[in-house]
Design goal:
The protein is α/β, with parallel strands linked by helices. 30% of the residues lie in helices and 31% in strands. Strands 1-10-6-2-3-5 form a six-stranded parallel sheet. The protein has a four-stranded antiparallel sheet with strand order 4-9-8-7.
């Protein structure tokens, strides 16, 4: 697995958006997070793009609210801020169906990603150095082969692809936006925060 870090400030939104488009044109299956960094990049580009190809986009993690359409979910974030600007010839969007009970939710997601291992991921770094919903301090509630259900400190329960799954992806683009996340990245590099043991 190769990790490519993209650290930037507001001035470079357009450049990062163009990197997104290149990735989406090149790869047919993409793992993506639904964090605020990706939201800001898409919103600030102010450009609508049509990609004349079929693509599978897999959501990396989700906050486990009762309803999938809750505005605080990653699903809602991507639907509103990603797919409203990026249109595809055909889109297979794989996400966590929060209306299902836990075991059914997990089985549904695993069934849909079967034989769909992405070669690339676009993930963002959190203010505290986490990626996906993999936190340094978290309570592991349930562990599956490629998924985990966790309870981070002072945060809602989450479901996420785990490190075992991420290590199978050939290339990960790690988006780091702003000075606060830049500081978190520095701590990760100095191994003061070991969020991704790869």
């Amino acid at each position: 697995m190769k990790i490519k870090i993209i650290y930037f400030k507001k001035l470079y939104f357009k450049n990062i958006f163009n990197i997104f488009i290149n990735i989406l044109n090149q790869y047919s299956i993409i793992l993506i997070s639904g964090g605020n960094s990706i939201k800001k990049i898409i919103q600030n580009s102010k450009t609508k793009i049509f990609i004349n190809k079929s693509r599978t986009v897999i959501l990396s993690d989700e906050r486990m609210y009762n309803k999938i359409n809750d505005t605080r979910t990653n699903y809602s974030n991507l639907k509103k801020n990603f797919f409203s600007y990026l249109k595809f010839l055909k889109l297979n969007f794989i996400y966590f169906r929060l209306n299902l009970k836990k075991e059914a939710l997990v089985k549904n997601f695993i069934y849909k990603i079967n034989n769909k291992l992405p070669k690339v991921a676009i993930l963002s770094l959190g203010n505290d150095g986490h990626i996906c919903s993999i936190f340094r301090h978290e309570k592991q509630l349930v562990e599956y082969e490629y998924l985990s259900i966790v309870k981070p400190q002072n945060k809602i329960k989450r479901i996420t692809v785990n490190l075992k799954f991420l290590k199978k992806i050939k290339k990960i683009y790690l988006i780091v936006y702003g000075s606060k996340k830049g500081l978190a990245l520095k701590k990760v590099i100095l191994k003061k925060k070991n969020f991704l043991s790869v």
